Amino acid sequence: MGIQDTPEEWQVTATVTPFTGNKTSVRTDQVVMPDGSVHGRDYQVHPGSVAVLAIDDEDRVLVLRQYRHPVRHRLWEIPAGLLDIPGENPLHAAQRELYEEAHVKAEDWRVLTDVYTTPGGCDEAVRIFLARDLSEAEGERYAVAEEEADMEQARVPLDELVRSVIAGDLHNNCLVVGVLALTAVRAGDGLDSLRPAEAPWPARPFEA
């Protein structure tokens, strides 16, 4: 199998949750280290997310521009959102996000890659999908609010996004990982090597 991440869990002697928010919480675990010492580790507990790299027949990627308060930036991103229900099928969540944020549907779905966004301080896992054969969704547009109320939408050539990532002009992790992963798979084994849309996801198990 070659190089591969492996599951492992060190002993935890105590756990507290000093903060619980609307979607996430903060947990402090007392973790036994390899030398037998015990140290506290604080991290954000996250339900998990999905993201969609949607690319049209002109090789343009659907991107959204949204204000992100923690980093004080308006970032270009790909459609993404939380897994709203424990055990939710990530494909269904991704299809929902593409509809809600862009009013677009796709006929061809593949798993592009799976990532832990910030494993040193958060347990968030993200599944990034590749969506192709795009078309306008039927019905009325989803009503948006808060940061999404003034969200911009564009379609940008994949090559232009790659250049902007390398230049340091784009910073959203799902966009960066998604466009580079797609470029790599095209240059390597091809799109047929990608996993099916409902491939198992050990980080967030679900029923297909």
Furnish the topology, listing elements before pairings:
Elements: E1 12-20, E2 25-32, E3 38-45, E4 49-54, E5 60-68, E6 73-77, E7 80-82, H1 90-102, E8 104-116, E9 125-136, E10 152-157, H2 158-166, H3 173-187, E11 195-196
Parallel strand pairs: 4-9
Antiparallel strand pairs: 1-2, 2-3, 4-7, 5-6, 5-10, 8-9, 8-11
Helix pairs in contact: 2-3
What would your notes on this structure say?
Helix 2 (158-166) packs across helix 3 (173-187). The protein has 3 helices and 11 strands. The protein is of the alpha+beta class and 208 residues long. A 5-stranded mixed β-sheet has the order 7-4-9-8-11, sandwiched between helices. A 3-stranded antiparallel β-sheet has the order 1-2-3, with no helix packed on it. A 3-stranded antiparallel β-sheet has the order 6-5-10. The chain has helices spanning 90-102, 158-166, 173-187; strands spanning 12-20, 25-32, 38-45, 49-54, 60-68, 73-77, 80-82, 104-116, 125-136, 152-157, 195-196.
Shape: globular
H/E element string? EEEEEEEHEEEHHE
Low-confidence segments, ≥5 residues, pLDDT <50? none
Give the averaged pLDDT, no decimals: 94
